[in-house]
Write the structure tokens for this entry.
Amino acid sequence: MKPIKFLVQFLTLIFCIILFYFFYVRYVPLIREFQLILVLLLSFLFTITLIKPKIGIFIFLSLIPTINTLPYFFRIRGINPLIISFIVIFLAYLFSTFAKKDKFEFFRSNYFYLNIFIILLIISFLISFLRYSDFFPFKRSSIHEWIINYLGLRAGGAIQSVLFGFLILISGYLFFMILMKEKNKISFFYRGIYFLILGFFLSEIISLVQYSYKPDFGNPFGLGNIGLFTDRNSFGIFLVFILPLIIGNILDSKLIKKIIFFVILILALYIFPTLNSRAGIGGFLLALILFIFLVILKVYRLRKRRMKIALSLVFIFLLIFAAAYFYYPQHPAYDTVTIYDSINHFYKKLSGLESSIKWEDLFRYRYTHWKSALIMIKNYPLTGVGIGAYVVELPNFYKKHSIVPLESQEFYQKGGKLPWGAKVDTAQNLFLHILAEMGLIGFIPFIAFIVIIVKKMYRRLKRTFTYPKRPISYRMIGVYSAFISFLIISMVGFHINFPEICFTFFFFLAMIIAEARNSGIVTNDLESVDNKLLTSQEAPSELKKKGNRAIKLKVIKWLKWKKMIIVGIILIYFGVSLYHSVTSFSLPSRTKKFGWKQDYGFYKWEEGPMGEYRWSKKEAGYTQSIEKPFIIIPIIASHPDLEKKSLDVRIFFSEDPFKKGKPIDEFKIRENKWLMREYYFPQYVGKDIFFSFKISRTASLLPVISFPSSS
């Protein structure tokens, strides 16, 4: 490795470690028992991956269906250990390649469209972070908890949504790059399938325990029969991927493995209807139909009529079994609407037994989110609202465009809930969600890459049916069926935001590409024009035949234009995103438009002898309406050592919360009693003034200072 590349990789590794440290400290709950198990697991993963990267990848595949609910056992929500586990494996992988003086390519030329999408994803994340942090660290030295949306979401919550939305997709992409770098042979992926199914089998066992014996086992939040998945919908969508794969392995394996896979399949079919996952059931039925169709074509081409009849009977049985799902009884411990209830309700409306049909009966209020996404796309067509920002901006669009009638902002800040159908969620459509968050510029390379993969699958199947001597395996038919089914059901859900689904999606994606290469399919659809002509084995002969100098000049010219086009797209995306973030999306603009009374740095309201008050952090501020010329701000400090070490307080005011305030007071607190600080503002009567406070120190457990409501 060249010294410059070695230095770049070393600095990249150090940078990733620093980022991981801050992420871990900020977002992973520091609960002793949970940390003990998690740290042991992460240490094991790091060590194994550092020594044997391939084994680390296989173990991670087994964790995809098993580790998601680990925090639930400790009554913790909001963090998925699968993401943390992958980051540790990725760091170990970087260490391993660095130690071998090898290099890890974050961007490979033969994944042109995917690379562009990831670059735009990074830009979208950075701009969204700057927007919600009020351009920290350029404009401010710290991140204040400003109000971000109409429901009272704070900057920290918005940044977390942006960060996790970005992390899920970028982790899936990096996992894909590791898979394609480690091994391109399909045998590597076939071995990986066994680890994935092994982890799924463990999740099945836990699911049976939850359904038959103890519903709250690893599920204290009443999320239904979830096994070891994030929730029942992620479990259902994972089954869309895994069940066709298991069926394919049954047909491809020898007797002992057939029996093992068949047992796992029967358990899955028993569990599936207990999930009440409409998208999962629909996706599996669709994948099953595709699987049957492709298998019949394959068998017909091979002229194995007995096998065709036997397979047809097996799959007819599976279809009948699947149809029985709709009549499966609901477990009394789960307070959810069953699939049968939904279909029966819609049937009654369709047959006139109930009132007229409404869209929500068919789409379960998805049209509300689709409409919101379309409005976002219309308002921000090029760059969208930012990765992870759909859920943040949705209430603002509800209010601005009157999509859903909302109560007052105070109603939601005091714990009020949105109507069920308007509950803040994803866009309930993968493609609309990407369009709403990334805009057309981000969506086009994403959809172009998907189209190329589908085209690759079509060419592979076409070759199979044209040349029966090189047939596709049944397990790959399962992969193709599951992948296409997932893309179709993504029209009614943004399921890739579940980490377990995202990693499974990219694993299947890598397997499709590896199998296409293994079968001899030319990969120039996935490679750029210059890479095809200049780096492929066929390049010298092609150049010789067609006049190598003329073609080479043409390719070099195209290379220059392509680089200019890419740079131009990136600059446009960055510029437009930044422009929206300092204008219509900026915090001052949103605050003025919706009339928010901004504050930051406070804990919840409490009741005291002088009325309601709030404890503050070292920096705090709030908006106060000036009704009379004189105002009083009562202040108290709670430190026991105030006589020895006083508490310094500085107070500032401004008409704009986002501008630097003017100092109006500075004093020390030496006693644990209320101080009544009086101020005279005759020129601001009838206006809102923003007061900000800077305090010298804070207690480790208890807040330092409180600010009851001003009088």
